[in-house]
């Protein structure tokens, strides 16, 4: 069974693989551009040590498929990458492999031209919309200096990663604020060990970061605007429901619904442990400065916390700034005994209301 799958997977390019020299040094630098670029890269990608994608116009309903690259391949985007329009689920771009680098050259943009799909419904209905960038099963790899604009819906889906760095990524969905962009999460992380996101600049309409599961996740030096905040969760109800060791530090969240957010799913099991939010600055937050709740069901809070996904060893250290005057500074809704061993210091939020609905606040924390 195993060898059959291997052969089937290689069938398309097996003659190339057998004929090509095996050492990395002797593989070529390959350049692709225009409307045929995506089809050509699919055919020849495993012959290239460097793949330059220059002004590629990806046809409607197809993925710019950079999966299964040879170990050590470098991918460089140049100019403007565009994508044809059809209703489908994407992704527009997909990359996998080991020791891969993906970088944007100076001035390079991946433009989703999302307005063709935006209908205010995001992934909850209306037009079928393609997710943008699947970064699945990347090991010891780096994605840097990419600029992504006008994503139809979610931007980065990071899954099955082992040691993946995302450096200086810019996501600019500002145009969607007034024209119906929705669920444009910047970085969704699941099932990953060792994801570091440094110096991201995000303007979007959903979570800036959403960690659904994974361990050793770092988000630092980020600026998030327009969205739903820096989030853990919702945790529970998936195949992997463990979040462990996450550091979200040195970041600013402005003009967003929430700042710091942890949400777990009602009635589900799992765990959230060792999460640290440190040195986070908030500005003009419309709902909650800090919100931690154990009552999510089908994407909405029920108001009734359950205890199956405990939140332990949480550190909130240095969350400062202001929220809008009809917002709430801090909201904590825990089940009985399912939030414990929290460190809570340097929380100084102004401008909003105090919540009277907090429950089971662990020692040290306060609403
Ligand atoms: C990663 O790939 C680069 C070439 O892009 C190579 O120089 C380097 O040795 C590789 N590193 C590892 C750990 O394989
Ligand atoms: C992130 O930005 C800081 C401040 O500009 C800079 O010192 C650091 O080198 C950057 N890190 C990366 C990985 O780009
Ligand atoms: C946040 O910034 C401080 C001070 O520059 C630095 O010591 C710390 O390592 C940074 N945090 C992360 C996760 O990089
Ligand atoms: C505050 O943030 C909201 C979005 O939550 C935005 O509509 C509004 O323009 C922002 N206000 C200022 C003064 O930036
Ligand atoms: C409490 O949390 C800290 C880290 O936040 C951790 O080092 C410690 O082991 C935890 N203690 C218990 C009893 O779980």
From TrEMBL:
Q: Supply the EC number(s).
A: 3.2.1.15
**Catalytic residues, chain numbering:** 228
Please give the catalytic activity noted in the UniProt record. (1,4-alpha-D-galacturonosyl)n+m + H2O = (1,4-alpha-D-galacturonosyl)n + (1,4-alpha-D-galacturonosyl)m
UniProt KW keywords: Cell wall biogenesis/degradation, Disulfide bond, Glycosidase, Hydrolase, Repeat, Secreted, Signal
One GO cellular component term noted in the UniProt record for this chain: extracellular region
Q: Does the keyword Signal feature in the UniProt annotation?
A: yes
Source taxon at top rank: Eukaryota
Name the Gene Ontology molecular function terms of this record: polygalacturonase activity
Any Pfam family hit: Glyco_hydro_28
Biological process terms from the Gene Ontology for this record are: cell wall organization; pectin catabolic process
InterPro entries with a match to the protein in the record: Glyco_hydro_28, Glycosyl_hydrlase_28, PbH1, Pectin_lyas_fold, Pectin_lyase_fold/virulence
User: Signal peptide position in this chain?
Assistant: 1-19
- First-level EC class: hydrolase
Q: Where in the cell is it found?
A: Secreted
Q: Is Membrane one of the keywords? A: no
Where do the TM regions start and end? none
**PANTHER family per record:** POLYGALACTURONASE (PTHR31884:SF1)
The UniProt family comment states: Belongs to the glycosyl hydrolase 28 family.
The molecule here is called: endo-polygalacturonase
Q: Which organism is it from?
A: Talaromyces atroroseus
